Amino acid sequence: MNSILERVMFKNKNVLLGVTGSISVYKAVDLASKMVQDGIDVDVVMTESATRFVTPLTFQSITHRPVHTDMWTPVTEFNIKHVSLAERANVVAIAPATANTIARIARGFADDLLECTVLSTRAPIIVAPAMDVGMYQNLVTQDNIKRIRTRGYKIVGPASGRLASGLEGPGRLAEVSEIQAAIYQFLGQSGDLAGKRIVVSAGGTQEPIDPVRYIGNYSSGKMGYAIAEAARNRGALVTLVSAATSVPPPLGIELVHARTAHQMREAIVELSLSANVLIMAAAVADYRPRDIASGKIKRKQKDLKLELTKTSDILEEVKGNLIKVGFAAESEDLLKNATGKLNAKGLHLIVANDITAPDAGFSVDTNRVVIIDRSGQADQLPLMSKSEVAHKILDRVAQLLSNTQ
Ligand code: CTP
Predict the structure, then answer these.
(1) Which bin fits 195, alpha (ψ -120 to 50), beta or left (φ > 0)?
(2) CATH code of the domain made up of 192-285+303-404
(3) In sequence order, which residues have a C-beta less than 8 Å from that of residue 73 and are 6 or more positions away?
(4) Which stretches does DSSP call E strand in 243-313?
(5) Which terminus of the chain, N or C, has less C-beta within 10 A?
(6) Which string of b and e fits 181-192 if b means at least 16 CB within 10 Å?
(7) What is the DSSP letter of 300?
(8) Where does ligand 1 bind, in terms of residues with CB under 6 Å?
(9) What is the pLDDT of residues 11-20, one digit of tens each?
(10) Sign of the CA dihedral with 73 first, then 77, 80, and 86 last
(11) Domains in the chain: boundaries
């Protein structure tokens, strides 16, 4: 995240962050900061009790905008403050949301600026509860949460764990990344990939030799995960078919685990039937051991021969009315080899990179790629973050999708 393209994408997007009085308010500061870094205009409305935990100045310094704490301060910017805030919000997120605030909005109270704004807005509303386990499990609170959920509010969390009171159980504010994912999913609903079904594969497959060993590769999964996250933020319905990776999966997407090339093939063939786009960023093994030893192979022999057999080429096998994007990791003749793969596998685009470059390819956060299309046009991109590369690929995918409509 935080790529230039992410900032452009969220330009003119407004999130109203409602902050209520909970010890977890410090996480809301982090959430505001992350959204600002992604180019979102964040308006913060704090309840009176929230200001006891952290001052409005903290949020103001991060958002570079006035922080709103009550309805009665004279303002020059708005005529009716809660109406203006409610109208310009693309998403309203209340994080942390106390039991008290949840109870009040569940019943339509309009006693403070946050409640008035929630009552007035036409934007989607996200509520991230944070409270003590007893309060959360109380049937009154459960009933209030059920009420707002039924009304279409999205509830994120709470997480379980150790609470400020020392008790254990549900009540912790959800992780910032989880709340952020829910917000970005709503913001993406008007994105250029809105409603498109995109299947992305990522990571490196592992082909078992015996119960404790496998043949693997150095793929970290970072490129595929960046594509999945970027597509989600542009409104796509993303399914990520993931082999082994070293990074946590992005939230707000469907995750399918596929350890071996065969499992990945099964998942992708099935998912591609209803997909608009398939992007194969996974490093799929070309060969697997012909036989998998049922017990651990012992160290008895001097030499050991492994017989390998070819796996099926997933990209080539998937046919149908969908956009196919492949990757080509090459160590020589980059353009020639990549164009050969584009043609052989019937792709619309191939993203080629030179794996011998130290700042591009496996494990690192940056990549330097060439995007080649069917006409043979090669677009050489400079070194950029994997998130930026992801958006560049998706720009081309969005273009291809609009041409086929
Ligand atoms: N791929 C696939 N199924 C395989 C192997 C690769 O779908 N069994 C996909 C990869 O995910 C990638 C593209 O095909 O998007 C090219 O993969 P790459 O490993 O660069 O090429 P190969 O076709 O395996 O050819 P080679 O290894 O000989 O370069």
Answers:
(1) left
(2) 3.40.50.10300
(3) none
(4) 254-257, 277-280, 287-289, 308-310
(5) C
(6) bbbbbbbbeebb
(7) T
(8) 261, 280, 282, 284, 286, 311, 313-315, 326-329, 341
(9) 789 999 999 9
(10) negative
(11) 4-186, 192-285+303-404
Best residue among 264, 268, 313, 348 to mutate for probing ligand 1's pocket (most ligand atoms within 8 Å of CB) is 313
| Residue-wise pLDDT tens digits, 249-306 | 888 899 999 999 999 999 999 999 999 999 999 999 999 999 999 999 999 889 999 9
Q: Give yes or no for a contact between 40 and 10, defined as CB atoms under 8 angstroms apart.
A: yes
For this structure, is 79 an active site residue?
no
pTM for this predicted structure? 0.85
Buried b (16+ CB within 10 A) or exposed e, 56-70: bebbeebbeeebbbe
Q: Two tokens at 344? A: 């052989």
Rounded CA-CA distance 94/78 in Å is 22
Residue type at 161 in one-letter notation: G
Task: Decide if 197 contacts 239 (C-beta within 8 A).
Answer: yes
Nearest Cα residue to 173 out of 161, 183, 185:
161
